[in-house]
Design goal:
This protein is α+β, with helices and mostly antiparallel strands and 230 residues long. The chain is built from nine helices and four strands; from the N terminus they run ααβαβααβαβααα. It folds into two domains: 7-153, NADH Oxidase; 167-227, no CATH class. The protein starts with a helix and ends with a helix.
């Protein structure tokens, strides 16, 4: 198993997907995604997330409407609504509790999406919704707040969502605004090719690097080459 390459593939391939195939997602894969979500860190290990898996078509249509009519969501066979059991956290961390509670749910959501990519699924994070409508549709109790809806399904379309602010514009060393300290640090694209050697120097040789050399060119390979050119 090549852990470095697997994570890299998931990070690069995890693009927001808004076009899904009419194909069911096996319940086992939903289980894998939720398991991944529960490994997220949380303040005080309070694990203040609730996951609501919605497969019922009528309910998914209602959710799409509650997301300010994002009709593309109807096509996703699964909606995972990540909810925040906020009181659990604010009781323990009064001032920062609200922020901590949201952050933990966000990490769980990201991990669910990474796992979706890992098992060959596509997903999109949806944060634009009417909180009251979602609360009503899902019969959420008072203290449970919907944080995001993750649409999940199969797709045969690679979305265009790759544009990113160059990392040297948002990274500083030692203090904000200082980015010339490590002149040779950027561009980060140069590291991809030699990372195997760097890992070998840092941790010793492993079978992982040998395996990666044998991997066929996938859409990940194509995107990675595209990133290298940036
Ligand atoms: C907090 C948050 C809220 C978002 N809300 C929506 C949304 O309501 N509808 C949508 O289509 N995409 C939504 N997205 C997805 C972003 O539009 C998408 O991640 C961004 O355009 C980058 O594209 P990529 O994920 O394909 O790289 C949201 C993402 C985040 C993190």
């Amino acid at each position: 198993m090549n852990w470095y390459m697997d994570l890299d593939r998931c990070l690069v391939e995890k693009r927001s997907c808004k076009s899904y195939l009419d194909k069911q997602v096996p319940i086992e894969l939903i289980g894998e995604m939720l398991k991944a979500g529960t490994y997220a860190p949380s303040a005080g290990n309070l694990q203040n997330w609730n996951f609501i898996v919605v497969r019922d078509q009528q309910k998914r249509y209602e959710i799409a409407a509650a997301c300010h009519k994002q009709d593309w969501m109807r096509g996703a066979p699964v909606h995972i609504v990540v909810c925040n059991d906020i009181k659990k956290v604010t009781d323990m961390f009064q001032r920062k509790g609200k922020l901590y509670a949201t952050q933990a749910c966000a990490i769980a959501g990201q991990d669910i999406m990474l796992k979706a990519t890992d098992v060959g699924l596509y997903s999109c994070w949806v944060g634009s919704f009417d909180e009251y409508a979602i609360t009503r549709i899902l019969k959420l109790p008072d203290n449970i707040i919907p944080e995001m809806i993750i649409t999940v399904g199969y797709s045969d379309q690679m979305e265009q969502g790759l544009e990113r602010i160059p990392v040297d514009k948002v990274t500083f060393f030692e203090e904000h605004g200082k980015n010339v300290v490590e002149k040779s640090f950027f561009p980060l694209s140069k590291y991809g090719q030699n990372i195997g050697k760097v890992l070998e120097r840092a941790t010793g040789p492993s079978a992982q690097q040998q395996e990666s050399a044998e991997q066929p060119q996938s859409s990940f390979g194509r995107i990675k080459n595209w990133l290298k050119g940036r």
